[in-house]
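Pipeline run #58 for the internal structure catalog. This entry was flagged by the ingest filter as a single-chain record with no existing model, so it goes straight to prediction. Upstream metadata was stripped on purpose; only the residue string is passed forward. Reviewer on rotation: M.T. Logging verbosity set to normal.
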Amino acid sequence: MEAVWRAHEDDGLQALATIWEDPEHGPVDAADALDWQEAYDLTHPVLIERERYFETDTRPASWIVDLSSMQILSVTMGRDTEVEERVCSFLGC
C-alpha cells in the first residue's frame, strides 16, 4: 500500500495502517506502531487499535473509504494485488 499511496498521494489518496497486536500477540502501544512503521519503511500514519474488531484471519485487508461521506467503497480481505487499479477507479486517475 505504501507504493500505491506514494504514487497517488497527489491525486488525493490518504493511507493509514492499523495494528492491534505486538509481535508476541499482546496489546499494542505507540512504540509498536513506530516499530512497525520503521520496519516496513512506511511514510503514512500507523495507528494502534486497542479493541479487536476483526479476526486474525482477516489481515491484511484493504479498505477504500470516501472521507467526504465516510462511505466504504471497497473492502478486500487478504493480499490485494489489484489495489492500485481499485484506487484509480475511485480517484479517476
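catalog note: The chain has three helices and four strands.
catalog note: Residues 2-91 form one domain.
status: ready for reviewer M.T.
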